[in-house]
Amino acid sequence: MSRVGKLPITIPKGVKVGLNDLEVKISGPKGELSKTFKGNIAISLAENKLLVKPLAANKNARAMWGTARSIISNMVTGVKEGFKLKLEINGVGYRTMIKGKYLNLMLAKSHNTKIEIPSDIKIEVPKQNIIILEGTDKEKLGQFASIIIKQRPPEPYKGKGIKFENQFIPRKEGKKN
């Protein structure tokens, strides 16, 4: 029995849900999301609650049960409230700015790095070393944040690089004579 999968998803006011076999369309004040799931699960809507159930008792169906429930729950939260990620840039001379539809990163490389901003993600740069990402799709937001972090991941000796706001970077001691 999946602890996550067996819980019903309550649909808040202002959010509409459409079901077509294994395709779920959710729309709300922040936007619209849709996702098609693979077999082995059944999704049903009853009295403003979505229920996800496995169709078989095999391992794959049980694994997808909790995963599908979590994805749908994140979709409902995304269209109702949205998601927000904050990234910090640490390092001398490391800074960022937005130019048109590109995020321009200056990370002590021989060239500036340009990353195209997806249309469904909003970016703010309140300071040169802070990036705030906002969007309705938690999966796309996390993937875009990882693309940014991959440009200069935090290193353990001086802590320079791009990291999530409250992420702990374990420090290492330098070379000894």
Automatic annotation (TrEMBL):
Residues covered by the Large ribosomal subunit protein uL6 alpha-beta domain: 11-82, 91-163
Alphabetical keyword list: Ribonucleoprotein, Ribosomal protein, RNA-binding, rRNA-binding
Pfam families cross-referenced by the UniProt entry: Ribosomal_L6
Biological process, per Gene Ontology: cytoplasmic translation
SUPFAM superfamilies the UniProt entry points to: Ribosomal protein L6
A GO MF term: rRNA binding
GO cellular component: cytosolic large ribosomal subunit
Superkingdom: Bacteria
Subunit note: Part of the 50S ribosomal subunit.
Function comment: This protein binds to the 23S rRNA, and is important in its secondary structure. It is located near the subunit interface in the base of the L7/L12 stalk, and near the tRNA binding site of the peptidyltransferase center.
PANTHER family: 60S/50S RIBOSOMAL PROTEIN L6/L9 (PTHR11655), LARGE RIBOSOMAL SUBUNIT PROTEIN UL6M (PTHR11655:SF14)
Family: Belongs to the universal ribosomal protein uL6 family.
NCBIfam families (UniProt xref): L6_bact
Protein name per Swiss-Prot or TrEMBL: Large ribosomal subunit protein uL6
